[in-house]
Specification:
The protein is mostly helical. The chain folds into two domains: 91 residues, EF-hand (Recoverin, domain 1); 93 residues, EF-hand (Recoverin, domain 1). 62% of the residues lie in helices and 5% in strands. It contains 13 helices and four strands. It has a two-stranded antiparallel sheet with strand order 1-2. The chain is globular, with a radius of gyration of 18 Å. This is Kv channel-interacting protein 4. InterPro entries: EF-hand-dom_pair, EF_Hand_1_Ca_BS, EF_hand_dom, Recoverin. Keywords: Calcium, Cell membrane, Cytoplasm, Ion channel, Ion transport, Membrane, Metal-binding, Peroxisome, Phosphoprotein, Potassium, Potassium channel, Potassium transport, Repeat, Transport, Voltage-gated channel. It is found in: Cell membrane; Cytoplasm; Peroxisome. It holds the Pfam family EF-hand_8.
């Protein structure tokens, strides 16, 4: 599902029909009212209607499980293997950890990624890198994410990256972020490092380009 394309498509006179679907659809998961999602996100009601149309087209049940998420995501990175990164991304969207991403989950995450403040985006990125959700990022977790990104980008990077590039990348960043040298990065260390170091900020923004 190319979310950016879905987002930019014209509504084509389907505003009322989408609202009707939100009220009438007999799907397994019923989305929250558009007005509530509008209040909870940075999208307008019209934009939410477009996004819901695309989401429902790909996920008729109203929710997407991890395997379907991976299948959809892999279509946009045919040059590499996006399986592992899609797994991490799915877990970041699945905020209640129930094994499914609803339209509400999707909208709340997408709202931050596309229109959130720097602070909100960094909080979201920290959650992505904090794989086991214990409130800290370890070097191993950061390396797992970086490897997944490199695997997904495949051979499209130029110049071609060396095999140990992800590890070198992580060693440099982790050394800068782990201020007190305790072997983990807290959310405060993460945000402070990203905001103070332009190189880290640019690299951390990589996740935005692979959503």
């Amino acid at each position: 599902m190319n979310f950016r394309i879905v987002f930019s498509n014209s509504v084509k006179n389907n505003h009322d029909s989408v609202e009707d679907e939100l009220e009438m659809a007999t799907v397994r998961h019923r989305p929250e009212a558009l007005e509530l999602l509008e209040a909870q996100s940075k999208f307008t009601k019209k934009e939410l209607q477009i996004l819901y149309r695309g989401f429902k087209n790909e996920c008729p049940s109203g929710v997407v499980n991890e395997e379907t998420f991976k299948e959809i995501y892999s279509q946009f990175f045919p040059q590499g293997d996006s399986t592992t990164y899609a797994h991490f991304l799915f877990n970041a969207f699945d905020t209640d950890h129930n094994g499914a991403v609803s339209f509400e989950d999707f909208i709340k995450g997408l709202s931050i990624l596309l229109r959130g403040t720097v602070q909100e985006k960094l909080n979201w990125a920290f959650n992505l890198y904090d794989i086991n959700k214990d409130g800290y990022i370890t070097k191993e977790e950061m390396l797992d994410i970086m490897k997944a990104i490199y695997d997904m980008m495949g051979k499209c990077t130029y110049p071609v990256l060396k095999e140990d590039a992800p590890r070198q990348h992580v060693e440099t960043f982790f050394q800068k972020m782990d201020k007190n040298k305790d072997g983990v990065v807290t959310i405060d260390e993460f945000i402070e490092s990203c905001q103070k170091d332009e190189n880290i900020m640019r690299s951390m923004q990589l996740f935005e380009n692979v959503i």
